[in-house]
Amino acid sequence: MANHESAEKRNRQNIRRKARNTSIKSRVKTGAKRVLEAIATKDKDASAATLQKAISLLDKAASKGTLHRNTASRKISRLTKKVNALDA
Predict the structure, then answer these.
(1) Quick one: which of 9, 41, 49, 57 could link to 31 by a disulfide (CB 3.0–4.6 Å)?
(2) Which residues contact 8 (CB under 8 A, 6 or more apart)?
(3) What is the pLDDT of residues 24-66, one digit of tens each?
(4) How far is CA 34 from the centre of its chain?
């Protein structure tokens, strides 16, 4: 338990940041899941549209520091690769 004012403040900050990061990560996972569902239906237009939303969410998470930028880039790359495979 925090005993000093600075430690108490740090604890409050950590609680707020954890809530924010959890929310952002949840949105990212949902966005990626929607892309995979659209790919499963083999609908190229829906896949491309949901991919753009997922890319936006991933970039936003990386810019906020919730995800590392390389992690976001890797996830974007893998999703894009799967959407592009629908052409073949």
Answers:
(1) 57
(2) 2
(3) 999 999 999 999 999 999 999 999 999 999 999 999 999 999 9
(4) 12
